[in-house]
Specification:
heterodimer, A: alpha+beta, Alpha-Beta Plaits, 2 domains, four-stranded mixed β-sheet, three-stranded antiparallel β-sheet, 9 helices, 17% strand, B: mainly alpha, Fumarate Reductase Cytochrome B subunit
């Protein structure tokens, strides 16, 4: 068993990280703090998940969210997708394993992966609406969010949702408020099987190694850790029985990266675009300085007069 | 038979100087609605395009209202431009002399209008501005709907939205460049602005820049 995060004291404690620990801030340039905090991570062990949805309930509870009563269409997912109120969702896949002949029930807790290189933050045009703390948590700051939905386009995992109520973007915060006072995320606290554990990223990787070794000893020869390098690694990681086929787990991206279209939009286009506008304006200014205004001469006026009179006579 | 270069409302008034009516009041109102929307769209769009220009959202009451109002101004622009398009498209159809005019761009830029072929109501440069704006506005309204999060988010996939926003950004940049050409040309060629403020130009201006148009107005023959 992984030693659980101890219960908090009842004394008020100052937050362990804040504004001074920003690695990145959307649409802004920040100087990263000289001393980086230890990276944290949530490890979700799919092989231990029993699909009880306690994590989903804990998330609603802690974050004071309410989900609308939905409609049963004969699947286990409830609600049917992530929403502005559902920041984490159990996704159920029935997998008929052709090698073993077993029917496997793969249950993946979906939600923000807290990428080391966050596409949402890269795409965001509003200064400070998305921040990344030096411990790896990527958080949305509601007060600065303008509701444009650019984060939705930037995210390689299809996570952020825009509320129809207040037109703001929402997603898992990794319980940054709880982590700030030394607690683990609410979902981790509620998990009855330790399918969710929380700690430093290094400890989580070590713990994952043990879990992977255990799974391999049980015949899952492709068991492994999902910490995709395409986004610089993530601060929410999965232990998968079939790490060679992440796609099996309700379409988990095999090799997620920020879309090249988003990179082009937020990279070359941004700079070349302003440069082009500047160049056109500069050309106009220069042209006017060099060749001066194109004036109508008195001769032109006289010619027009002759033409007009010639006809009227 | 040559086509007529004269639009409804164009007329010539002999005198000193000769005065030529170029744009009707309705056309000018139509133009300025479109122009105002385009400027507001450029400002609000640039605010969301580059972080260094985010401060421009202050002109619209903050980031959220900028995000909310930008697409609606786009709708105004679309219908405004549609009006201009229906008014002007015919006289902007490309002619063989436009190639000659364009081939002598050096004379155009150095103000040697005497070396250019006689031009009808619009020269090749104006036609290029007209047609590129027409195309760009269709591209921008279409891609703009795809990325209009508030009302249309559920109708398109994320990948479609990514492509749309890239196209939207690039076409907006091109449109702003075309707009700079349009405005600069109006300033550089003195006597032009009054066409859009008062609806009139002097006979000399028409003689110098749109002689074929002036001749048809005077003679009544294309």
């Amino acid at each position: 068993m992984f030693p659980p995060v101890p219960n908090p004291t009842t004394q008020a404690t100052p937050p362990k990280f804040g504004e001074q620990d920003l690695m990145r801030r959307s649409a802004s340039t920040v100087t990263p703090p000289a001393k980086r905090q230890t990276g944290v991570a949530k490890l979700i062990d799919v092989s231990k998940c029993i699909g009880c949805k306690a994590c989903q309930v804990a998330c609603l509870e802690w974050n004071d969210l309410r989900e609308e009563v939905g409609v049963n269409v004969g699947v286990y997912e409830n609600p049917h997708d992530l929403t502005p109120n559902t920041w984490t969702l159990m996704r159920y896949t029935e997998y008929d394993n052709p090698e073993s002949g077993n029917l496997e029930w793969l249950i993946r807790k979906d939600g923000c992966m807290h990428c080391e290189d966050p596409g949402c933050l890269k795409a965001c045009p509003a200064p400070g609406a998305i921040v990344q703390y030096s411990n790896g948590i990527v958080d949305f700051v509601k007060a600065n969010c303008i509701g444009c939905g650019y984060c939705v386009k930037g995210c390689p995992f299809n996570i952020p949702r825009i509320s129809k109520v207040d037109q703001k973007a929402y997603k898992c915060t990794l319980c940054s408020d709880r982590v700030a006072v030394g607690q683990g995320p609410a979902c981790q606290k509620a998990c009855p099987t330790q399918a969710i554990v929380f700690g430093t990223k290094d400890d989580m990787k070590k713990w994952a190694d043990k879990r992977v070794a255990d799974l391999k000893s049980r015949g899952y020869k492709n068991a492994g850790l999902y910490d995709p390098p395409g986004v610089g690694g993530t601060h929410v990681m999965y232990v998968l029985q079939h790490a060679d086929k992440p796609q099996l787990y309700a379409g988990l991206a095999n090799n997620p990266t920020i879309s090249p279209i988003v990179e082009l939009w937020k990279g070359l286009t941004k700079y070349a675009g302003l440069a082009a506008i500047g160049a056109f304006a500069a050309f106009g200014l220069l042209h006017h300085i060099v060749s001066g205004p194109n004036r109508v001469s008195d001769e032109d006026e006289r010619s027009a007069k002759r033409l007009a009179q010639g006809q009227s006579q | 038979m040559k086509r007529s270069e004269v639009a409804p409302g164009d007329s010539v008034h002999p005198g000193d100087p000769v005065i030529v009516d170029r744009y009707t009041t309705a056309a000018r109102i139509n133009h300025w609605i479109t122009a105002t929307s385009l400027v507001l769209l450029a400002l609000s769009g640039l605010a969301l395009f580059h972080p260094s220009l985010f401060f421009l959202t202050g002109l619209f009451g903050g980031g959220s209202t900028t995000r909310m109002i930008h697409p609606w101004i786009g709708v105004v622009l679309f219908f405004g431009f549609l009006g201009l398009f229906l008014r002007f498209w015919k006289l902007n159809l490309w002619e063989r002399t436009d190639n000659v005019w364009l081939g002598r761009l050096r004379d155009v830029l150095t103000g040697h209008d005497e070396n250019l072929p006689e031009v009808g109501k619009y020269n090749a440069g104006q036609k290029l501005v007209f047609w590129s704006m027409s195309l760009l506005i269709i591209v921008m309204i279409t891609s703009g709907v795809v990325i209009w999060e508030q009302y249309f988010s559920e109708y398109f996939t994320i990948e479609q939205k990514r492509i749309a926003i890239l196209i939207h950004a690039i076409s907006a940049i091109v449109a702003i460049c075309v707009w700079i050409v349009h405005v600069y040309a109006a300033i550089w060629v003195r006597g032009t602005i009054s066409a859009m403020t008062r609806g009139r130009v002097t006979g000399g201006w028409a003689w110098r820049h749109h002689r074929r148009w002036l001749k048809e107005l005077v003679t009544g023959r294309p």
